[in-house]
Design the sequence.
């Protein structure tokens, strides 16, 4: 009996948690189908009278979203792959190689994780403008090609692989390079998938940085493009939410498919996302 | 391939020496065991042979080639690790193929070779499984097949049987012996189990605290232990060890006074305490008291008291009762005397 109560309680809490998490998402979907007056109605309504699918068509016509979409894809892909590449190499060095100053360097890098991202915006902006990279893909990509969070997560995983596997690979004639890509990386697949997905989501949703370093339509990414619905005359919430749905959709699909890996990868390294 | 160590010393931290001035030669085509208690430096020795670890000083030769400066990649040995170290993401077949892939053998050839090896170690019915889905014994065979894949001239095995149950251990050690004899590969087998070493090897190197105690055949180790450590380490039940002061003249006249003078410890094999006199072989007679006699299976042991010390014999034939006085005859070929450094000065072949 006691067990049953605990069980019911557990489910109630989980359901409540899930509901709270889902609320904004459902609100977005609902609003994206409302008429303009319905979006600002008090008290708010959840289910619009008529489902206005035309909001989607109109919203996408409002700005060159195809261009934005391409930009987002390019920036996300290059950033993620680049960051993964540098992080895998760095994590390997920190976990397996011996070099002068390794521990001090590691501690310094670890320290950088404590600096809030917002504080880096201005110095990064100044650096990039001195390099004449403002308003280029470079500005959107280069600052994100290294991430110590990813390095750290991967290092933890790499270190959990027994030394003897490394020795076995050496005996079998594998160089460090071969060992890294043919043994270590495949073994660490779940963590790598997890950090990849986190990075993809982060890049895809990035708003502040792209907003600051680009000001042409040609380079605008999707989240920045959503600003099109905010004008001096107010915000068209229905269209904004329709476009937002369109922006978020790929990430939701990605998450659903890779959920298993993400959870496994994160719980394995004992890190939160 | 013949392996030679010349004055090899190793220290991990530059302060404490783990292995001290090792000198030995392992003859081509033989199976040699490195035997010693935990922490004596067996794995370290193996790591140096494989090239995963460089000696602090000294030289290592393969045949007459000096390989001291060559790393594991260049030495091309095969090795089975204590925990097998199979690649968890690869199937059995891919694990065996891995060294061949590294050696850039064509896909077709390496598959053929891998299947051949899988047959040799009787694992060809498990080719598609991942290592995680195999039993310890099966994993071990895969590890052996992988180690043999590139046809190494030297096969190193680091306590490969330590994770297996008693029955499988015996089966697998016969298997290893068979594979070694079929392939003729020079094999070095690390173990801390004397039984394993005695059964599998042509020669045994006994190691303790980074020193080679003795390097010889199993029989020689048992019949002619070069020091007290080897005498105590080899043999089951363990040799009886007494101080010379425990004797009250029983050995006088039988052994040179000069030797007795230098003796500190006396070792007596349990089977060298006979309850009947075989005149030709009897060295001395001692009077003991039976404290307990026990019998299980074919074995019959008696615990005895002699001048306040405990002795064990396996050779009591007659029925004895606890507390009874029993004269025992020390057999010449199971009694050893050791000096203060533990070196054997009497018994075995160097009989005085
Ligand atoms: N990487 C290392 N760094 C420092 N000391 C080490 C290292 N590896 C082993 N040692 C030390 O060297 C000594 C010999 O170790 P080794 O692993 O060779 O022993 P072993 O004979 O293989 O023991 P076991 O039977 O327990 O495997 C031990 O005292 C151990 O503490
Ligand atoms: Mg060991």
Sequence:
């Amino acid at each position: 009996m006691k067990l049953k109560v605990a069980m019911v309680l557990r489910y109630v809490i989980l359901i409540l948690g899930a509901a709270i998490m889902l609320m904004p998402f459902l609100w977005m979907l609902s609003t994206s189908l409302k008429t303009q007056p319905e979006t600002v109605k008090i008290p708010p309504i959840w289910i619009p009278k008529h489902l206005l699918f035309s909001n989607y068509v109109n919203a996408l016509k409002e700005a060159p979203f195809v261009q934005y979409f391409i930009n987002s894809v390019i920036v996300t892909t290059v950033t993620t792959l680049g960051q993964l590449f540098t992080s895998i190499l760095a994590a390997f060095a920190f976990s397996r190689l011996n070099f002068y100053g390794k521990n001090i360097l590691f501690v310094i890098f670890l320290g950088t994780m404590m600096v809030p991202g917002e504080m880096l915006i201005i110095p990064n902006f100044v650096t990039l403008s001195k390099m004449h990279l403002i308003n280029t893909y470079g500005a959107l990509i280069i600052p994100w090609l290294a991430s110590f969070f990813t390095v750290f997560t991967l290092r933890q995983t790499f270190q959990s692989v027994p030394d003897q596997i490394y020795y076995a690979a050496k005996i079998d004639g594998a160089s460090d390079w071969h060992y890294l890509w043919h043994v270590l990386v495949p073994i660490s697949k779940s963590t790598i998938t997890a950090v990849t997905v986190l990075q993809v989501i982060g890049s895809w949703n990035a708003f502040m940085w792209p907003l600051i370093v680009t000001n042409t339509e040609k380079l605008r990414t999707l989240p920045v493009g959503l600003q099109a619905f905010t004008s001096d005359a107010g915000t068209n919430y229905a269209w904004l939410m329709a476009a937002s749905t369109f922006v978020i959709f790929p990430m939701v699909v990605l998450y659903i498919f890779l959920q298993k890996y993400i959870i496994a990868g994160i719980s394995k390294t004992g890190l939160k996302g | 391939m013949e392996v030679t160590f010349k004055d090899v010393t190793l220290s991990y931290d530059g302060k404490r020496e783990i292995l001290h001035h090792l000198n030995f030669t392992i003859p081509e085509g033989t199976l040699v065991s490195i035997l010693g208690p935990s922490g004596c430096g067996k794995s370290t020795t193996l790591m140096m042979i494989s090239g995963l670890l460089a000696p602090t000083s000294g030289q290592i030769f393969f045949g007459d080639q000096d390989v001291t400066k060559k790393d594991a990649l260049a030495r091309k040995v095969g090795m089975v690790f204590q925990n097998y170290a199979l690649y968890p993401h690869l199937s059995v077949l891919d694990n065996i193929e891995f060294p061949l892939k590294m050696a850039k053998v064509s896909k077709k050839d390496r598959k053929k070779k891998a299947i051949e090896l899988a047959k040799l170690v009787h694992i060809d019915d498990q080719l598609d499984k991942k290592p995680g889905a195999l039993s310890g014994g099966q994993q071990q065979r895969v590890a052996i097949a992988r180690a043999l894949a590139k046809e190494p001239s030297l096969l190193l095995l680091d306590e490969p049987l330590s994770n297996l149950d008693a029955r499988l251990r015996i089966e697998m050690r016969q298997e290893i012996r068979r594979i070694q004899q079929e392939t003729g590969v020079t094999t070095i087998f690390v173990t801390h189990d004397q039984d394993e070493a005695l059964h599998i090897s042509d020669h045994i190197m006994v190691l303790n605290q980074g020193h080679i105690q003795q390097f010889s055949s199993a029989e020689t180790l048992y019949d002619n232990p070069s020091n007290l450590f080897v005498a105590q380490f080899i043999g089951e039940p363990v040799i009886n060890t007494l101080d010379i002061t425990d004797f009250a003249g029983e050995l006088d006249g039988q052994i040179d006074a000069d030797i007795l003078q230098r003796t500190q410890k006396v070792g007596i094999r349990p089977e060298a305490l006979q309850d009947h006199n075989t005149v030709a072989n009897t060295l001395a007679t001692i009077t003991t008291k039976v404290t307990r006699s026990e019998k299980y299976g074919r074995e019959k042991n008696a615990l005895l008291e002699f001048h306040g010390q405990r002795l064990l014999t396996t050779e009591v034939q007659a029925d004895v009762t606890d507390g009874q006085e029993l004269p025992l005859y020390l057999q010449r070929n199971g009694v050893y005397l050791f000096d203060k450094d533990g070196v054997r000065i009497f018994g075995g072949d160097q009989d005085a």
User: Anything to note?
Assistant: Chain A has a mean pLDDT of 87.
